[in-house]
Give the backbone structure.
Amino acid sequence: MKNIFLSVVVVATLVAAGIGGTLADFSDIEISEDNTFATGALDLVVSNYLGTEYPDDVPSFFMIQDAYPSCDKSVFLDLHNYGQGWQVDPYCYIHIKNVECGWIMPKKPYAWLDETGAKVDAPDPLPTEGTKGTGYPKPVTDPEYVAEMGGVAGEDVNGDPVVVPGIGLSYGEGCEVSRHVDIHIEVAGPYDHGAVPTSALVPDADWVTLDLSDYDVDPADGIIKINELECMEILLMQIPNCKMIWVHIWVHLQDFDEEAAYAEGLIPDTYFAETYPEAKWDHWPTNAYQKDYVEFDMAFELLQIPIP
């Protein structure tokens, strides 16, 4: 009788506890907190040939003054990809833009010309030496005036004057001087950050010359000019994350000779064959570009997908 009473008490207790005569399943809870989804970034940094990085304000790398015919200048740049999280190696481009031409005030101007090439009085006040100008009147030196507007360029073998017709004003909306500055681009890499020295310290690197022939407006000359690359997106190379490439950019001022002027239709063939080879100034058309200048921007762009 005593055992039956105890059984009734146990059952009553389980029912009161809500268990209904059975035990609950085992369970355990662990919480993953503060989950985030953060995107990566394309991060291109330019450095000079000494390894000085310019994360924000990239300086002018070409500051060429008093260039002479056949003058060559070049710069070495290192481009670093500090980006994160990309499945495809980003594509790095160079974009030459904002090409602008003008004149620089010479030390002793011979004449001032208006937009028609006519001589006009000097402006008052006179610009100081080295002042840049982008309008008329334009100051020209004596050889520059002859090359642009025509005149006596020397004597022939008989002592008779050689008169050239002139190739026209070299400054204006056409930005003529930019048509006679060649550009050449080489790339090497990619390399690990810090694993190799900067580009200028390895002159015998495995440089690859970019094929710019698709941009050549005049394929016959085989020369790429700054004006031909304006507003063009030129692929340098793909740069994987945490890698760098070397870039070598070279510019050259052409020695613009009589044959080139004839080929461009700037002078008549009746003068070229006999008269011009005797001219006092060798390659006298180059004189048309004295104290002229061209300015341009170089934008380096890192893109996730290539430009079609």
About this structure: The longest strand covers residues 91-104. The longest helix spans residues 2-16. Residues 44-303 form one domain. Residues 8-12 have pLDDT under 50 and may be disordered.
